[in-house]
Amino acid sequence: MRIKPIVLVTTLYLFCFPFFVYPSIPSDPLRTHQESDSVCRPDGFPALSYAESQVFPKDGGLRHPEDGRALPDGRIVVGDEEFGLRIIEKDGSSRGFGKFKEAGWIHDPPQVTAGPNGIFLEKDGRHLLLADVYLGKIYRIDTRTEEVRMIYSHPFGINSLIRDSKGTIWFTQSAKNPKERGFQDLFAAVDRPFVSGAVFYLKGSGYDVESKAVEAASNIYFANGIALDRDEKILYVAETMMGRVLRFDIDVSKQTLKGRETYHHVITPDNLAFDKAGNLWVASPVSNRIYAIDSKCGSLHTVFSAPSESNAEAHDRWIEHSNLGKPLLAIFNPELWKPLPGGLTGMFWSQDHKTLYVTGLGNAILKVETGAQATDNNVAHTSRVQSEPGARATGINETHASRVH
Questions:
Q1: Is residue 272 within 8 Å of 282, Cβ to Cβ?
Q2: Does residue 57 have a cis bond before it (omega within 30 degrees)?
Q3: β-bridge partners, 127
Q4: Cα 8 to Cα 3, 14, 18, distances in angstroms
Q5: Contact criterion met (CB below 8 Å) for 391 and 385
Q6: Cα(215)–Cα(199) distance, integer angstroms
Q7: DSSP per residue over 208-257, as a string?
Q8: Which CATH architecture fits 48-399?
Q9: Are 293 and 284 in contact (CB under 8 A)?
Q10: What's the rounded Cα separation, in Å, for the pair 311 and 322?
């Protein structure tokens, strides 16, 4: 059938006209945007970068300092495969800390491989909790007497942990890795991700806890870092192998989690910590970076970076292999974390908040002077913001900022 020209022109006009109608453009769009009450303006963040002078201690000597905490007297403690914990003096000298061997600590590879991982400083400023990611133990340490007790044994490895005001311990299980295969099965869940991660709680107080933990959340691809807001209303969990940070509404009186949602996407999120302003800091081993998520706007900011060509190449391969379902573990090697002494896993701050310590899997950590950037480790004031744009952001909206508070 032949279409008459007048019909064709009319049809094209009717269907195409909407695409040629443009909204009116304000004379000064930038000014209008900036003055809008709906625009969320993130606070300034530090933009710190790696320098060789930051390596601490200078002579290395650390073994698996995956996490750490600053003590009130200015010294810091980090994880140590052989001793459980290692204390580092202000001059950089260090020694094994805590009577771990009396509490049953064993590191005798390949028969037994200990995995000191998450460390939490309790509210009294005196007692520490240490999790073993290979053997599934939780230890409580008196920092004054160095007394150590193993207070709980889990069927699988325990990655990170916190303790709330009721005395309940909340911890992450990254994989179903029994102690007989703690190391192998943990990294199998990295190489070929599968959903075996979970969050558990353990009721108790002091050295006394219940004999069996209760699962509070499941179906997590490698549950990793964990952090609780100061008001104890929201619990945050790093889901490493899905590249996202989850958050839950928490009721510490009833030991319940609900309202699970994605707070932000971050490549390989590891340990988590809050600063004083309630911004969540996220360590990312594959990117050699630490990010901060603005609590008000939900925007993502690079606050520390250690760039290198080999890291950039490995980073791209990781994304490619992740998207195509290829094995990942071979990419996690020294070429990825150059120029760092080991894979970046976390961060904590000095008691005066002027020094940021960057932890990892090498023989040293980083000691980064930041000035007065104030922070709390694992616990901070923050709230679930719903009225601000981006508060529930799930895509990467990264902003590099140089203004330091």
A1: yes
A2: yes
A3: 142
A4: 7, 10, 17
A5: yes
A6: 6
A7: EE-SS-EEEEEEESSEEEEEEETTS-EEEEEEGGGTEEEEEEEETTTTEE
A8: 6 Propeller (2.120)
A9: no
A10: 16
If 0-12 CB within 10 Å is exposed, 13-18 middle and 19+ buried, where does residue 51 land? exposed
Q: Give the Cβ contact number of residue 183 at 10 Å.
A: 19
Q: What is the DSSP secondary structure assignment for residue 361, as one 8-state letter?
A: S
CA distance 310 to 287: 11
Antiparallel, parallel or unpaired: β 379-380 and 223-229: parallel
The structure tokens listed for 390 are: 């981006």
Q: What are phi and psi of 239, to 5 degrees?
A: -105, 90
E strands along 81-189, which residues? 84-88, 94-97, 116-121, 127-132, 137-142, 148-153, 161-163, 169-173
Distance CA 404, CA 245 (A): 25
Q: Is 396 left (phi over 0), alpha (psi -120 to 50) or beta?
A: beta
Average pLDDT over residues 126-146: 98
Residue bearing tokens 């800390």: 97
Cβ partners under 8 Å of residue 181, min gap 6: none
Distance (Å) of CA 396 to CA 186, 250, 300, 302, 367 = 27, 25, 7, 11, 28
331: Cα within 13 Å, side-chain hemisphere: 23
Residue 39, pLDDT score: 82
Check: pTM over 0.70? Answer yes or no.
Answer: yes
Distance CA 121, CA 130 (A): 9
Helix (H) or strand (E) holding 16: helix 5-16
Is 293 within 8 Å of 299 (Cβ atoms)?
yes
163 strand-pairing partners: 169
What is the C-alpha to C-alpha distance for residues 337 and 270, in angstroms, rounded to an integer?
Answer: 14
Instruction: Name which of 130-134, 212-216, 269-273, 295-299 the model is least confident about.
Output: 295-299
CA 222 to chain centre: 12
Write the pLDDT tens digit of every residue in 328-366: 999 999 999 999 999 999 999 998 889 999 999 999 999
Q: Under a CB-based contact definition with an 8 Å cutoff, are residues 264 and 244 in contact?
A: yes
- 313-337 pLDDT tens trace: 999 999 999 999 999 999 999 999 9
